[in-house]
Amino acid sequence: MARTWLQIRVDLLGGGGTDLRDPPGRIFIVGPSHSFEQLAEAINAAFARWDLSHLHEFELVGGRRIGYPSDDFVPDLAWEDHAKLKVASEVSPGEEFAFTFDFGDGWRHRCRVLEGKVDPREEWGPGPLPKRPVAVWGWGWIPDQYGRESASELDLEP
């Protein structure tokens, strides 16, 4: 297993039928024991997703697909289990891969493993190291998962 922590830049390219002209992004630190499942959870939290009932996948170079295996939804694809694979063992600095959340709305992300080693103590601070990938830097406006701009678009009781 890799012992090096990675920095992964994730840019939100679009979704819900739109492409984002100025993509918001986040930089995550990812430890050697962190799985793709944990990275997906961190990305969804950092991009303000609240309805997490949707499938997702990572697509690595060469077409490898990593996600929550679901023969009900996509029976013809060969999926690798996101809970079993460690990010730092499967990608290297300089590599790029994709993350898609919600196959219906297709929230697309470009993920780039940044060059150079990262010291998690410098990025995270003192105390226990994070047990999951965490965003340590970010920029940009995050669109609502369903395109809503205010609470008036919801069916809420007063």
**What can be said about the biggest beta sheet?**
9 strands, mixed
Please state the second-level CATH architecture: Roll
Portion in helices: 10-25%
Count of individual helical segments:
3
Shape: globular
Total separate domains: 1
Helix and strand run: EEEHEEEHEEHE
Give the structural class: alpha+beta
Structure description:
The chain has 158 residues and is α+β, with helices and mostly antiparallel strands. The chain has one domain (6-153): MM3350-like (Structural Genomics Hypothetical 15.5 Kd Protein In mrcA-pckA Intergenic Region, Chain A, Roll). Helix content is 13%, strand content 30%. It contains 3 helices and 9 strands, in the order E-E-E-H-E-E-E-H-E-E-H-E. Strands 1, 2, 3, 4, 5, 6, 7, 8 and 9 form a 9-stranded mixed sheet that branches. The longest helix has 11 residues, at 36-46. The N and C termini lie far apart (53 Å).
